[in-house]
Amino acid sequence: MLKGNFYTISNVVKEEGQVNLTLELNAAHPIFQGHFPEQPVVPGVCMMQIITETLEEAVQQKVLLQKASAMKFLNMIDPVQQPLVDVTLTYKPEENGGWKVNATLKREATTFMKFQGVFK
Length: 120
Hints:
Pfam families: ApeI-like (PF22818). By secondary structure, the protein is of the alpha+beta class. It contains 2 helices and 6 strands, in the order ββααββββ. A 6-stranded antiparallel sheet has the order 1-2-4-5-6-3, with helices on one face. The longest helix is centred in the middle third of the chain and has 16 residues, at 44-59. The two termini are 18 Å apart.
């Protein structure tokens, strides 16, 4: 789990099938010593973990990524220059018991990541 250490949540708005939140990245987190010491960048795997944790909290169950239809990393997130990130996640149940998910990580006009996929 990255929540509480790698990032904290400062604002959450939940609606049926959608979560909007703002998170604050911890630029002092040890992961940035290796990724990368002179130019910290949020790893893509951490962005995916943020999406996973957001979904798990919304549906109140553990989930596992089954299929990534689209996963686009559009801009790097430097936690020093851009400590706040807005996450929008929409989800709907599938017939097989999974969750169809669309998610975006962005701040103002800059989109960092777009995701479409299925969790189960």
